[in-house]
Amino acid sequence: MMTLRTWLVDSSLDKVKIAWSTGLNKCGTVIVAFPEPQASHELIAEFVAIRHLLFHEQVFDRYPVAGDGHSFFFSSEQILQIITGARKTRNLVPYARFLWSDMLGAAMKVNGNDDRLQSALEGPSLTIEFDHYLHAGKITYTTPVLGKIQISPHAVQRYTERNTDFIKSPRRSLMRFLYRPEFVQTQLPDSVLKHKSMRYGPHDPAETWTLPGSNLYLLFIVKDGYKELVTCYVPDLAPFKKRNAALRRKEQESIWREKQAKAVLPKTKKKIRVVL
After folding, report:
1. Is 275 contained in some domain?
2. How far apart are CA 76 and CA 6, in angstroms?
3. Which of 134, 175, 203, 210: disulfide with 65, CB 3.0–4.6 Å?
């Protein structure tokens, strides 16, 4: 399990100091500098520091593609409330989104008393400018053939639904799929493209990619410097609809059996036998 712990150490209107640790020998502090005051800047600074450590500094010696296998310990309960949606703070969503999308599946808790904090304070320090993350969107991944891409949660859901095999980690499985070097660009029928444009908006240009011999198509919207994967499409959905219907029937049967097992049968009255 790869564990990242963060603590809020010091705060002023223009700077927030976050201590971090992935172990006793790998730790330090991050200072997030704000050019102008920001609402909830302490919470924003912790999100920005975590994102910077994961994807820029790569403190786990890799570029994360999924959350499973990771655990995060935050400085306050407020961070968890934002991630779970218990606290409605729309201005913080752009900075926290990567934790429930790109790092979906990670374990998340609040820090307790920990000796690692002192080691982190004695470690190296780096300063990052908030301006670099002011308009930060989804995490961008660089693939061999598809280039720079971003992934929407809807695409992960569709990839899972369109796959006949059980997938333990849908996002990790999709990322491995996207890194394959055999991808070729193709063209969907006009009727399908019209349907997709009605669903996702009349974006132009759009690209469709697939693997030779595969019936799974990937629909990308081309944006400035990257492509966003918006959905995964299978022309012949009959096998998948049949499988999903069978799964729903099995689930309903399981629920019905549980109810039957829990049902309390009415007690029968004992008959009194009178012997004369």
Report:
1. no
2. 9
3. 175
- Same domain, residue pair 111 and 226: no
Nearest in space to 53 (alpha carbons), one of 76, 92, 84, 27: 27
Answer whether residue 101 is part of any domain.
yes
DSSP 143-192: ETTTEEEEE-HHHHHHHHHT-SS--SSHHHHHHHHHT-TT-EEE---HHH
Neighbouring-strand partners of residue 185: 209
> Residue 203: which of 229, 178, 236 has the closest Cα?
229
* pLDDT digits 0-9 by tens, 198-255: 666 655 578 889 999 888 899 998 888 889 998 888 876 555 555 566 667 777 787 7
Residue 271 lies in a domain: no
Residues sharing a CB contact under 8 Å with residue 259, sequence separation 6 or more, in sequence order: none
Which pLDDT tens digit goes with each residue over 165-174? 777 888 888 9
How many domains are there within the chain? 2
- Name the phi and psi angles at 4, rounded to 5: -120, 125
Which single residue is written with the structure tokens 């407020």?
78
Residue appearing with tokens 């500094």: 57
**Token pair for residue 145?**
């053939």
Question: Cα(90)–Cα(87) distance, rounded to whole angstroms?
Answer: 9
**Nearest 5°: phi and psi at 219?**
-105, 120
Q: What is the identity of the amino acid at 130?
A: F
Counting residues of the chain whose pLDDT is more than 90, the rounded percentage is 31
pLDDT at 194: 65
**Predicted TM-score of the model (pTM):** 0.72
The last residue of one of the domains, among 133, 168, 190, is 133
Identify the domain containing residue 98 by its residue range: 2-133
Nearest residue to 78 via CA among 101, 44, 102, 51: 44
How far apart CA 26 and CA 120 sit, in angstroms, is: 8
| CA geometry: angle 133, 136, 137, nearest 5 deg | 165
- Determine the 3-state secondary structure of 248 from DSSP: helix
